[in-house]
Amino acid sequence: MMKRMKLNLSADEVLATTRSVRKRLDFDRPVERSVVEECIELAMQAPTGSTRQGWHCIVVEDEAKKKRLQEIYSQNFEIYANFPGRDYPTGDSRAERQDAVRDSAFYLADNFHRAPLLMIPAIEGRLDNLPSFMTASAWGSLLPAVWSFMLALRERGMGSAWTTIHLMNDGEKEAADLLGIPFDAVSQGGLFPIAYTIGTDFKPAKREPLANVLHWDKW
Hints:
alpha+beta, NADH Oxidase, 5-stranded antiparallel β-sheet, 11% strand, globular
């Protein structure tokens, strides 16, 4: 039995180097159920509103279901890819990365089904057309756990990518029907490939200067 790998990164290293991974997902290396369960158990230590713990994780390893999820994602991605992109000023770090991000996004759309596992996180309740207080509260009870899951993957030499495109149009309903998710009572939060990464040497990403986003006392 292969020994479970842990990178023994510090908390700061994990926080600074956990990336959305697309082209460096190892599609040929199997992922053990036990390591995913371990990461989900850690993720369930995240905050949850009123201690409700209304989260659910649907992990997909069936090849036919993975392929169908890829098709749903890819159909929506074709639409999304034609949306007008945001214009950034010259010298903006986000502009410098646009072509690379776009290329890796196309790659993932074509290869989603090759990931050993796919995961859909979900939260109890339908959140369509609700006041912002209610949607913020609900997503605030799911998304911290999802991020904790990605951090736990990183510490174990694994990676994922945070995607939501399969939710466009009728995609969420199609995924719900495929996986038996009660659509009228549960909202999906994304679609995540799960795989070991090709190499583990991830670095902090380029971000805008703190002065551009930090506000003290007023905007």
